[in-house]
Amino acid sequence: MAVNLSPPSVLEPIAGVRLASTRAIKSKNRDDLTVLAIDAGATVSGVFTQNRYPAPPVQVCRTHLGVDKTNGDIRGLAINAGIANAGTLGRGLHDAQESCRLLANLLGCEARQILPFSTGVIMEPLPMENYARGLQRCAGKLIHDNWLAAASAIMTTDTVTKGISRQVQINGNTITVTGIAKGSGMIHPNMATMLAFVATDAAIPAPLLAQWQRDIVDDTFNAISVDGDTSTNDSFMLIATGKAGDGNHTVVRDAIAGVCAHLAECIVRDGEGASKLVTIRVYGGSDKETCLRVARAVACSPLVKTALAAGDANVGRFLMAIGNAGGNFVPDCVTMHVDSTPVLFNGGLHSEYCEEKTAAVLAMDEIMIVIGLGKGAYEATLKTCDLTARYIEINAAYRS
Amino acid sequence: MAVNLSPPSVLEPIAGVRLASTRAIKSKNRDDLTVLAIDAGATVSGVFTQNRYPAPPVQVCRTHLGVDKTNGDIRGLAINAGIANAGTLGRGLHDAQESCRLLANLLGCEARQILPFSTGVIMEPLPMENYARGLQRCAGKLIHDNWLAAASAIMTTDTVTKGISRQVQINGNTITVTGIAKGSGMIHPNMATMLAFVATDAAIPAPLLAQWQRDIVDDTFNAISVDGDTSTNDSFMLIATGKAGDGNHTVVRDAIAGVCAHLAECIVRDGEGASKLVTIRVYGGSDKETCLRVARAVACSPLVKTALAAGDANVGRFLMAIGNAGGNFVPDCVTMHVDSTPVLFNGGLHSEYCEEKTAAVLAMDEIMIVIGLGKGAYEATLKTCDLTARYIEINAAYRS
User: Where on this chain does substrate bind (chains A, B) (predicted)?
Assistant: First the structure.
C-alpha cells in the first residue's frame, strides 16, 4: 500500500553502463542478482551505513574504493537481494571477496575493480554456487537499456520499483542521470541509506563527485526515516562514466540531487505498511542540528506516527514529541502548522486551533508538518511515513 | 492483554496517609479523581519528567517542593486521570494552582502544601467545576484503608491496577511500604516515569529520602521502556510519614526499592499491546552509560520488538540494533544469549546457534536477553515489551 507511488515506465540508458539481472539467490519467482558493468574511465563514489556492524560487502566496497571512498578504476558491481551477507564474519568476508573475483574473471578485470552489494535477511550465508552461476548468466547478456529490470531485481520488501531519469543540456550535449534504489524498512537517517545506484554519462572528477555526493546525501537519503532502524548494508553509489562530456556544472549537480531526492521520497512512500507520506519541516533554528533533532523526535515517535495513521488530531502528542528533542531551542517559542492550519503557538494550543480542520488535514495521505523554533535562520526537512498495523504484520508475521 | 499480571488483592494502609477517590473528570463508569491526605510531620520527595514541556501540575509540584525537590510540609496530593492538563499554558497553570487552593481549603492547610498531578490526554483543559465538586466529595470520605481504590482511579489505558506492599521489622517495629502506579504507553527511561506514589510509615529525613529516591529511580522507573516516548506528566512521589519509627535502615531502603521495582515491572507487563515481558541485561561494559545505550538500542528497535512479538528467531535484527548503539564497545567482542541459548559470539553467529532452540525461547511470554560487551565490569538491565498490532490499534483507533 505505497503512498501515491507508481513504478517508472522508462529509465534512460547511460552510455558506459550495461546491466543484466537473473534469478540466483532465494527468490522463487523473480530476479534477485544484478550485474552492472562500467566502461573504463568512469569515476565512482560511495557512502555507506554508519551501523557498527557493516556487512562484509560494505567492508569490501570501502577497501576497493580506498580511503577517500572514490576510485577511478571500478569496472563492475554485483548486487544481490534476499540475503544481506551481514553478521557473517570470516565466511561472509570470504564470500564477498570471492564474488569480486568471480565477476572480475567474467568482465576481464581485477577483483579490486569490483564492488559487491547485498540486501535481505541478516546472518544468513550466500549460496555461492548459485551466485557464481548467476553471475555467469548475467555476464552473457549485459545491455545498456536494462535499468528497469535492475530496479526490480534489487527489491526486498519493496512493493514498487524505484527509479528515475533526468536529462540536462550542456553546450548542445545531452547529459543523462539515471538512478535506482531499494528500501522499505530498517530506514533511518544519520547514515547513507539503503541501496541506491545513480549513474550519469557526464565526466565528473572523482574528488568533485565525492563532494557532491556528501552534500546531496544529507538532504536526500539521510533526510528520511521509516522505522528508526539503520541497516547493516546501506550503500549509495554514484557513477560518472564521462561518455557525454564535462559534467562540472550546477545543472548536472542539480539533476543528480533531483534524482536522489526522488528516490529517497520513493523509499518513504513505499515504507513498510505506510499509508501516508509525512514531510516535517523545522525552521527558525539557531543551528541545523537542532532543527534535525526536533524533526527526528517527531518523525520517530510511535505515538505521533499512530496518530497520523488514524488521522486523529491528538495534537498533544506532537507537543510531547517536540519536548523530548534535545538541542538549542526554547519550548515556549515553538509554533506548529499542519499544512496551513495553525496548531501550536508559543508552546501551547494556537488561539485559532480548530480540531475539525486539523483532523481533515491529518486525514489526507500527504501531510506537511511545519514547526517553527523562532530562534534563527536554520532549517531542516525530514520525510517519514505513518505507523500502521500493516508494519507489524510485515515484520512480525514472517521473515522478510 | 497484560503479561502475567494480576491486580494486587491487598494494599496495606500507611499510618499518616488517608485516601479517597471519586468520579469527576471525564470517565463515565469509574473514579478518576483521587485525594491523598498526609498528616503533619511527613517528608515528601519527588522526581519528574525530563520532557521539555512539563505539564503545569509538574511545574507547580516543582515549585511547592522547592529547589531540592523535598519538602517536610506537604499535606495533600490531588491526582486526576483522563486529562493531563499539559500544553495548556497560562490557563493550565491557573487550574493547577487553583486545585491546590481548593484542596488546601478542604484540608485546612496552605496551597503551597498541596501537590497536583494529572494524567490523560494532552492539551485539553480540566473541567474545574466538576473537579472542585469532586475534591469536596473526596475530602468528606478520607480513610486509611483505601489504596486499592486509588490504584484503580489513577489509571488511563492501563488494563490492570498496579500496587504492592512490603513490610519489614526494625527493633520490634513493623515498617510498611505501600506503592501504586499507573502507566501503559508513552513510557521510556531517561526521566522519572509516569505516575507513581510510594508511602512508608517510617521516619526518613528529607535529604536522605531524596537521595534514596534518586538512587532507586535509575534502576526501576528509569529502567523500563514501552514505546520510547517520554510523557509530559511523569511524576514519582515518595512519602515518609514517620508514624512507625526511624526508617534510616538498609532494610527500609531495600523495601522501598523493591516496591518501586515491582511497580516498574507492572507497567511494562501492562504496556500497551504487550504480549511479552522482555528483560535486556547488558554486562561487561567499560562504563554504565555504554551498557544502557546498548540495552536501549535493542529495547527501542521496532524490528527487534516485532520479531519478539512473532517469536521469530530473526537474530540478525539484534545485531543490527546493537550496531546502531553509540558508546564505548568493540562490535567484534559482543556476545548474546536468549535465556541460556547462545546466539551471538564475537559479533557473529555463535557456533552452537540453533534456530529451533532460539525460536522456542522467543516464543515464551517472558524472555531474558543477555548481551556481553567483553570490556569491563559495568552492567545495566532494562525491561521492555514487544510491539504488536494491538499497540497500533490502541493508539491509532481512538484517542486514549
Answer: 156, 182, 193, 272, 395, 400
Helix (H) or strand (E) holding B178: strand B173-182
Amino acid sitting at position A273: G
To the query of whether residue A193 is one of the catalytic residues in this protein, the response is yes
Domain boundaries, chain B: 17-269, 277-397
Return left, alpha or beta for B239; rule: phi > 0 is left, psi -120 to 50 is alpha, else beta: beta
CA distance B229 to chain A (A): 6
Q: In this predicted model, what pLDDT tens digit does every residue of A30-68 receive, in sequence order?
A: 999 999 999 998 888 888 877 778 889 999 999 998 877
Using CA atoms, how far apart are residues A367 and A357, in angstroms rounded to an integer?
Answer: 13
**Residues listed for chain B:** 400
**Nearest CA to A123 among A85, A67, A91, A161?**
A85
The ipTM, to two decimals, is 0.74
Q: DSSP label at B230?
A: P
Gyration radius from chain A CA atoms? 22
Under an 8 A CB cutoff, do A319 and B122 touch?
Answer: yes
Cell of B114: 498541596
Residue B318 contacts A where some CB pair is shorter than 8 Å:
no
The whole-angstrom distance between residue A151's C-alpha and the CA centroid of its chain comes to: 13
Long-range contacts of B108-111 (CB under 8 A, 24+ apart): B109/B75, B109/B76
Quick: pLDDT tens for B267-310.
888 888 889 999 999 999 999 989 988 998 898 888 899 899 98
d(CA B197, CA B180): 5
User: Considering the domain A277-397 in this protein, what is its CATH number?
Assistant: 3.10.20.340
| Residue A160, H or E segment | none
DSSP E strand stretches across A152-310: 162-170, 173-182, 195-200, 224-225, 235-240, 277-285
CATH level 2 (architecture), domain A17-269: 4-Layer Sandwich (3.60)
Helix (H, G, I), strand (E, B) or coil at A250: helix
Rounded to whole angstroms, the Cα distance separating A303 from A297 reads 11
Beta B277-285 vs B173-182: how paired, if at all? unpaired
Q: B387 and chain A: CB distance < 8 Å anywhere?
A: yes
Predicted pLDDT of residue B400: 46
